[in-house]
Design a protein that fits this description.
Layout: H1 7-14, H2 18-25, E1 54-58, E2 63-68, E3 71-81, E4 90-99, E5 103-104, H3 107-115, E6 123-124, E7 135-139, E8 145-147, E9 158-160, E10 164-166, H4 168-177, E11 183-187, E12 191-195, E13 201-205, H5 215-228, H6 237-246, E14 252-253
Parallel strand pairs: 1-11, 3-9, 8-10
Antiparallel strand pairs: 1-2, 2-3, 3-10, 4-7, 4-11, 5-6, 7-8, 12-13, 13-14
Helix pairs in contact: 5-6
Length: 258
């Protein structure tokens, strides 16, 4: 833990719900933190299937995965587009990269500022007040990109204007790892199933911010997948159903106890 950290910022940095961080550490929001204090973080993630190389972003999961040569190199929590301003889905490529960028405020966001009675900004210089943080990685979807932030507690949420926002340190690492031409695949998977080498089955059910499905439909899809993979008798179905209904993004084992 670093000086100036808050519980909310720590939870956001690791993509863990604040309530779970508090529960696992036996603390509450009134707890005074100390630099160097250790906190337990327990937030396993199921990695979605995707290309062997490049960036994979699963919007409901609010996670970005970096692969190279078929191997997972890094995974970071992100903030993505809110329900009324969604992040576009599809296959894209990195087209531009800028350190300490100037934010040229899109007209659509200027109009939102005006509607909300805020000062209308047309340009924000690089520095601590810049919402893009220290790194901008633009995509071939005009106006969209991956970038840092000056609001670290906002990570792992659905609250951007469509861009993919990372903790500034993570954005710097991503900036150093990619280059123009790197593929970026943005998907929408509300639930993920993984079988570990030892036979454990893990299910992660994420929120559905863009209202593209339902817990009932997800359960039907999971049953169909289990049938294809011959996993039906190994799954604790009442537990799987509860996880799909909760859709809290917390991965859990769903294989039956012997």
């Amino acid at each position: 833990m670093r000086a100036g950290d808050t519980l909310l910022a720590i939870a956001a940095r690791y993509g863990e719900p604040l309530a779970r961080l508090l529960r696992d550490n036996g603390i509450d929001t009134r707890t005074r933190l100390r630099p160097g204090q250790c906190l337990r973080i327990d937030n396993p993630q199921v990695v979605p299937p995707g290309p062997a190389d490049g960036v994979l972003i699963n919007l409901p999961q609010r996670m970005l995965f970096l692969r190279r040569g078929g191997r997972l190199e890094a995974a970071w929590p992100v903030a993505v587009g809110r329900a009324d301003w969604p992040t576009p889905l599809g296959r894209f490529r990195v087209t531009q990269m800028r350190r300490d960028p100037v934010w040229h405020v899109p007209v659509s966001i200027q109009e939102e500022m005006r509607r909300e009675g805020k000062p209308v900004l047309r340009e924000v210089p690089s520095g601590p007040d810049n919402p893009l943080g220290h790194s901008w990685i633009g995509l071939d979807a005009v106006g969209y990109g991956m970038h840092g932030t000056n609001a670290p507690a906002s990570i792992h949420s659905f609250r951007t204007h469509g861009c993919v926002r990372l903790n500034d340190d993570h954005a710097t690492q991503l900036f150093q790892a990619v280059h123009p031409g790197v593929p970026v695949h943005i998907i929408y998977r509300t639930w993920l199933l993984a079988e570990l080498p030892g036979g454990q089955l893990w299910l992660q059910a994420n929120p559905d911010p863009y209202h593209r499905g339902s817990a009932r439909a997800s359960l039907e899809q999971l049953r169909a997948l289990a049938a294809r993979l011959d996993l039906e008798t190994r799954i604790d179905w009442p537990l799987a159903q509860r996880l799909l209904q909760a859709s809290d993004g917390l991965a859990a084992r769903i294989d039956r106890s012997e």
